[in-house]
Amino acid sequence: MSVVEGAVLALLLLCVLFIIRVFVVVKTGSQFKPGTRGPVSVLVVAGSGGHTTEILRLMDSLSSAYSPRHYVIADTDRMSEEKICSFENSRPHPNSESQFTICRIPRSREVHQSWTSSVVSTLKALRFSLPLVFRLRPDMVLCNGPGTCVPLCVAGLLLGILGMKKVLIVYVESICRVRTLSLTGRILYLVSDYFFVQWSSLRDKYPRSIFLGRIV
Fold first, then answer.
1. According to the model, what pLDDT value does residue 110 have?
2. Model confidence over 90-105: pLDDT tens digits?
3. Are strands 69-74 and 42-45 parallel, antiparallel or unpaired?
């Protein structure tokens, strides 16, 4: 066997092992129960406008056990930071201080942005997401649709693939999505540990989804 053939075979073997590892991490994610031994560190992806409003409504229903809370917003988002600070300052804090941070990464995709340029901007966002997620090492990534959550979820998935830490990926589809998933939803449907929809028509169409009625 030549050196080239050996290198190709080794590369194929690595690809197969990588795919198997991804499959194992995704399939066993729902068995992972964060918080059984203490607080749950959560990375919250906030979009702009309605996405931020919905995710904050969802956060309002979570207990103080979800702490610290790391909010991630796009670097071009000028409104979400104020909403997040206002929300956090209005919450009761049993430890006398709020445990939250706000981080910024490049936006993965702008509205009406072309597919070609979206690939480039998503890769740029991934370059910032990897060191951020690897540094924070959250127990859970919580998101509801903005494109920014895709590279963050990929980074969280990679932590589990590398055996460093299992990061639970929880996706809540927007209440606006009645019959079809958003583009982000269609992507993360394949890798999310828990995928929530808010309309029974979506639950019937996507059997892996969870329908609990309107939750935001």
1. 66
2. 887 655 556 899 999 9
3. parallel
